[in-house]
Amino acid sequence: MPTVVCSTKESISQIINNNIEMDTCVSTLFTKYSTKELQNGGLCENIKEMLQSNNKIKRKKGVELIHSYLQLNKNNKSNILLFNLSLELLLLTGDKKSEEIRLLSEKVSLLLFKSLPIAIMPVFINNFIIGGKKPGLRPLARWQTKVTSLKILSIASELAPVEIERMMSTLVPIISKLMWDVKKHVKIQAAETLEDVCDAIGNIDLEPFIPRLIFEGLASVFFCTITVGLFASSVALCSASALFLASISALASLIRAVNALTI
Hints:
Elements: H1 8-17, H2 22-32, H3 35-40, H4 43-51, H5 56-72, H6 86-91, H7 99-115, H8 121-129, H9 143-159, H10 161-166, H11 168-178, H12 184-199, H13 210-215, H14 232-235, H15 248-262
Helix pairs in contact: 2-5, 4-5, 5-7, 7-9, 8-9, 9-12, 11-12, 12-15
């Protein structure tokens, strides 16, 4: 009887779908195949199918598989293989049916981001956090996804400060808006992330993004705030004639963030 030889794609699929412990599964993949073979053999396609499954067990297994891959593979260049799974993984941080999947997905999303080369981090942010099909910080995103996305920006501020500085004029208005989100967890994380982003940069010219910070970042609260005095000179935002329309608490948060910029 002739021996049946499985293709690489079929073999990878069989290994993934076998009911074996995740670390064993990933170790087997690393032992048998190179990164290029895993890529061409449909590893990401198999995992993506799991992450998008209606079956809770399959979704969890997909997240666990990524986690094991990252734990066992310390080469961040080959971790780029998982880059295209970032969106599906991030969306699972807001999984409607399982808290376990939500918590695990957040943990793995942060781990995946940390494992990427610094040069790729701005691409990640632009494609999955603030742009792309379903960015993590879009208004209709689940609040857990917003929190995870903000945490990713905090990590980026520490690991890639130069890249974050270049994105400052885009990030500040988006983060500042989230300080007025309906969910307390999002508000708190947005404030922390804004401070982290501000701490990441040096003495740069604030002029390009100050107007956006004021008129876009606080737009969501303008309808329910009062007119307050001239604070620009004390916080070094712009000219002494600047007039903020914000509540006392909003202004205090803004001043704290600006102080971090101007120290």
